[in-house]
Amino acid sequence: MQESRIDYGIILNVLLLAIIGIISVYATTAMIEGKGVVPTLYHALWYGVGALAIILIIQFNSEQYWKMSTILYGIGMFLLVLVLIFYDRGTAAATGAQSWFKIGPLSFQPSEVFKPAYIVFMARIITEHNNTHLQRTIKSDWVLLGKIALFAAPPMLLIQLQNDLGTNLVLAAITVGLILLSGISWKIIVPTATIITVVGGSLIYLAAFHKEILLATGLVKEYQIGRIEAWLNPFGDTQNAAYQLVQSIKAIGSGQWTGKGLGVSEVAVPVRESDFIFTTIAENFGFLGATVLLFIYFMLIYQMVQTCFETKNEFYTYIAAGVISMIMFHILENVGMTIGLLPITGVPLPFVSQGGSALLSNMIGIGLILSMRYHHRSYMFATNDQFNYE
Fold first, then answer.
1. Terminal CA-CA length for the chain
2. CA-CA distance, 347 to 335, in Å (whole number)?
3. For 340, left (φ over 0), alpha (ψ -120 to 50), or beta?
4. CA-CA-CA-CA torsion sign (327, 174, 364, 43)
5. Pairing between β-strand 101-103 and β-strand 106-108 as defined by DSSP bridges
6. HEC string of 285-314?
7. Of 24, 134, 161, 260, which has the maximum CB count within 10 A?
């Protein structure tokens, strides 16, 4: 009996997250904030769009993605440039980010859907390099790092011009995940990681004690430094920069073990339906509800890793590593910032937060993972040979 080509375990976990997301958005927007059911319907509609995207994505195999990778990267870069010219002025005035197109009631953030294209393209760059340099040396590893930097820097610059630090952090997490799996020598990784840690620590120190130096460079904004200060001392200024974080901590803590019940909230949290949806889950369903959510995420990541090992295809492996890094960073950063462990960066909770572009990006990532299993099984049934990209 042939094993199924569809990974129903991944689909089940995404379906559970979809149910949790729709219920949480409804509880937040309709029951707590009194905005009616329209936001929930839009959220459900984006799930439908994402499901269609998955169906489309699994029709393509690794050879086709290999050939399309450069085109996908190019289209993504074009959209990142275009949004800097035609960004929605209203959204930019409200959020400070010039990263959204808007057509009627619908808005679209191209940097979100660029992330899967970036993953596929970088997977090809690393695979091509490794197949060309079968004898790894320190020199060849530096060449690979140079290639990665060459194609990572332009989109990160464009996204920074959009004033979207959160998305840039996600791209950085994807890049780090791919580098760690690419086989680059630890003689390069350890010193580089040490330098990055020292520089990062120094920036945090300057933000906390000498922010005028950072502001003078023009590379950071006052509100970004305020987020660092709020993270380091959230209860030092509860009415200004730290207000959102303090309210988030209060809401999560007030849920205690079992929560207050669906749609019951006694703590106001700004931007709750998107970046801070975790506060609704924790307040409504308590520690137990939050634990169930995190367990579902764990199972989803575990099954994606398992699929990666099953395919034994280098190109697929790097695609999977990128998708896993993207989703894991979203989870860790979002949950971490809502409980005060990490600074607030505006990174949504995967598959749960309201936001069509981010949801579509994550669904595309799931589609890429499902495509791995789908075509790998089909190929095994047909030939039981490894795919050759040449």
1. 32
2. 10
3. left
4. positive
5. antiparallel
6. HHHHHHHHHHHHHHHHHHHHHHHHHHHCCH
7. 24
> Which two structure tokens, joined as six digits, stand for 143?
């060449």
In angstroms, what is the C-alpha Rg of the chain? 21
pLDDT single digits (tens) 98-127: 888 887 777 889 999 999 999 999 999 999
Contacts of 80 (CB under 8 A, 6+ apart): 110, 111, 114, 155, 158, 159, 162
Tracing tokens 């990006």 back to the chain, one arrives at 361
Residue 20 in tokens: 């949790």
Residue 379 clears pLDDT 50, i.e. is over it:
no
Structure tokens at 274: 């998107």
pLDDT band with cut points at 50, 70 and 90 for residue 137: confident
Cα 127 from Cα 203, distance rounded (Å): 34
* Predicted model pTM: 0.89
Nearest to 124 by CA among 166, 53, 70: 70
Quote the DSSP letter at residue 162. Answer: T
| Separation of alpha carbons 30 and 41, rounded Å | 11
Buried b (16+ CB within 10 A) or exposed e, 159-192: beebbbbbbbbbbebbbebbbebbebeeeebeee
Q: CB-based contacts of 130: which residues, under 8 Å, 6+ apart?
A: 144, 182, 183, 314
Torsion angle, alpha carbons of 21, 27, 32, 37, to 10: 90
For residue range 233-258, list pLDDT tens digits in order: 777 766 667 888 889 999 999 999 99
